[in-house]
Amino acid sequence: MPTRLPAPVGLAAIAIAAALLAACSGLPTATPSAPVSGREDGSYFSLDDPLHSQEMVIFALGLLDTGYRFGGRNPEAGLDCSGMVSYIVEQISGRRLPHNAAQIAQLTRPIPIPSLQAGDLVFFNTRNQRHSHMGIYLGDGRFVHAPSSRGRIRIELLENPYFKSRIDGARSLLAAN
């Protein structure tokens, strides 16, 4: 006969699971209270080859319809938003980014949102927390991301009312000229 959890324990487990599934990436080690303006030493993570931005877009499009998985780091098991970005960067450059949207934002060069180019990163406040979700900008107002809702990597418009009201930054993986 199967073992049943007491009702309060079962409800608590369901609530915890739902909270985890609603998240996109691991929690940051420290929650920034103000917008992140860059690293103190002025250095940022950057890709070695400017063509890597184009490769990121192509690679991201190849992951469309891949399943979502909280904490996911590879397409076979599923990806979350920061897992998708760090996986793509590692496949293209051989270099690793953290598996955390807020930490990726801290390591990468801020750019104005109107300056977005294909291959740049877009960040959103989806959990009342800066940089709690992210995606890769494709151009023409579109980005690809791994959302927990409907569970598949897909393309969205930045003008989508949900994302338009939550965008909280853009970053480039290219070195400043």
TrEMBL record:
Belongs to the peptidase C40 family. Keywords: Hydrolase, Protease, Signal, Thiol protease. The keyword Protease applies. Residues 1-22 form the signal peptide. InterPro entries: NLP_P60_dom (IPR000064), Papain-like_cys_pep_sf (IPR038765), Peptidase_C40 (IPR051202). This is NlpC/P60 domain-containing protein. PROSITE patterns: NLPC_P60, PROKAR_LIPOPROTEIN. It comes from Aromatoleum anaerobium. Residues 50-174 form the NlpC/P60 domain.
